[in-house]
Amino acid sequence: MKFNNILVKKNNALAQVTINRPKKLNALNSETIHELSEAFEALEEDDNIKVVVLTGAGDKAFVAGADISEFAHFSVDEGANLARKGQEILFNLIENLSKPVIAAINGFALGGGLELAMSCHFRIASDNAKMGLPEVSLGVIPGYGGTQRLAQLVGKGKAMELILTASMISAEDAKNCSLVNHVTTPEELLPLAEKLAGKIMRNSSVAISGAIKAVNANFEDGVNGFDVEIEEFGKCFGTQDFKEGTTAFLEKRKPNFPGN
Fold this sequence. Notes:
Layout: E1 6-11, E2 14-19, H1 30-45, E3 51-56, E4 61-63, H2 76-95, E5 101-105, E6 108-110, H3 112-119, E7 122-126, E8 130-132, H4 146-154, H5 156-165, E9 168-170, H6 171-176, E10 182-184, H7 186-201, H8 205-217, H9 225-236, H10 240-250
Parallel strand pairs: 2-3, 3-5, 4-6, 5-7, 6-8, 7-10
Antiparallel strand pairs: 1-2, 8-9
Helix pairs in contact: 1-2, 2-3, 3-4, 4-5, 8-9
């Protein structure tokens, strides 16, 4: 699969997706959003891939925002459709992917870039990273899930402050408010992502998929997360991974999960 704006590299069970528009600070335009959607759909179907790392090319930006020139003259209906379509084909897709997606934030993650990082299952950042949702300074609000996911991650009050002031925060501040899990040097960012991915890949991919569904269910309107947890927990008992995991535990050896 050939792309113009992204790179996809596979190394055994780990895939790295890199947004590759460094001259534009990896800004999200419609073509890039569609390419990312295609890539993540393909990775979801690839049984060999267990974890995905998402990052940006270069050392200046993860994604510095959306390409404003594409929608500066949109009508009300066009603006609403832009947000709806983007959420459906990319941001919600990543959030609900059955395989963990780690955002490795290298540099600026602003606007749509931070929204993209927040749609990932968790985030790590280089110590030179800057994050924020500056949309209100342009007369618009975050439209790719930012108002919802930021509040889920950092709490309502902190989300309100960041969104209403359009402020940028440092990687360390982002860690302190639970927006990112780890902060490291730029040189160690991808090695850390790979280390975390390695820990994940030692576990049952079937159980991980169920855990993602159960955790996400807590944030879905009209869905009882406890019920989803019970359902996913029960499903585990019918898998070969459960049989292998419990047998290995009783036999005091490391499990070799078949992934079904």
